[in-house]
Design a protein that fits this description.
Helices cover 33% and strands 15% of the residues. The chain is of the alpha/beta class. α5 crosses α7. The longest helix has 12 residues, at 12-23. Bound molecules: zinc ion (2 copies). One zinc ion is lined by residues 28, 30-31, 33, 44, 46-47.
Length: 249
């Protein structure tokens, strides 16, 4: 139940946010100006025009959008090459412009303040059917990186996505055994080799029949990491693994 101020009849949360805006003025992560009114708290209306939401049609395996007319149910060239062992994929925004900025804020600048904006973007994507009865499994960070960064952005996203639908939950089933140094500069084949055998199942985990596994990561780049995680889950007894990423590269 919302609490209200007796004096102003405004929700206390609104008053508190107004107070925070006075003390710590919000700025748009795209341009640094005041974001103004709108559904997103940290992206101004102008920068919002550069945010590319992914709507159908898109690749059924990884969620990459098709621009223009296409036959439905197609697989993109990247997935033809990857031969993914995950069965379907969704992604919410393109990893470009302010979309890439969201990922940087999350990954390197402790962008926890973007929780409400990401929740809004997830709500817009109507994930109810895709995530019905799903167990959302974040791609894990190696413990050393976890210590450096302080939090795992994939787990943060998995929690937000699970909260966006009524029958889904987050479960960090996977662990990272090998510290795969940053993959940003690696080629497609090197990425694949780099993540091979980097993941394992947390001890004591068993997969119930019909468990609906959805792997969650911040960005889909080549799919190598997600594919390796899916392989580990399937080998351990998961019947089916799908993927969900915030952004697609
Ligand atoms: Zn802006
Ligand atoms: Zn694809």
């Amino acid at each position: 139940m919302r609490s209200y101020s007796a004096v102003t009849r405004l929700p206390l949360s609104t008053i508190w946010e107004g107070f925070l805006d006075l003390v710590f003025p919000r700025v748009c992560i795209g341009c640094g100006r005041a974001p103004g009114p709108g559904p997103l708290k940290f992206i101004c209306p102008q920068c919002r025009m550069g945010l590319h939401y992914i709507d159908p049609p898109f690749c059924r395996d990884c969620g990459y959008p098709y621009f223009g007319r296409v036959d439905s149910g197609r697989t993109c060239p990247n997935c033809v090459q990857l031969e993914p062992c995950f069965s379907a994929g969704r992604s919410l925004i393109l990893h470009r412009g302010v979309g890439a900025r969201i990922v940087i804020e999350l990954k390197y600048h402790n962008g926890l303040f973007l929780r409400d904006d990401i929740r809004w973007i997830a709500g817009r994507a109507r994930l109810d059917t895709y995530l019905a009865d799903a167990t959302l499994i974040p791609v894990p960070l190696h413990p050393r990186k976890m210590r450096e960064r302080g939090f795992n952005q994939s787990a943060f996203l998995a929690r937000i996505f699970a909260g966006a639908v009524s029958r889904a939950q987050m479960n960090d089933i996977l662990v990272r055994d090998t510290d795969t140094s940053t993959q940003t500069r690696l080629s497609r084949d090197d990425r694949r080799r780099n993540v091979k055998n980097a993941f394992a199942i947390r001890p004591g985990i068993t997969f119930s029949r019909g468990m609906n596994c959805v792997l969650v990561d911040d960005v889909y780049t080549t799919g190598a990491t997600l594919n390796e995680c899916a392989r580990v889950l399937l080998k351990a007894g998961a019947e089916d693994v799908r993927i969900l990423t915030l952004a697609h590269g």
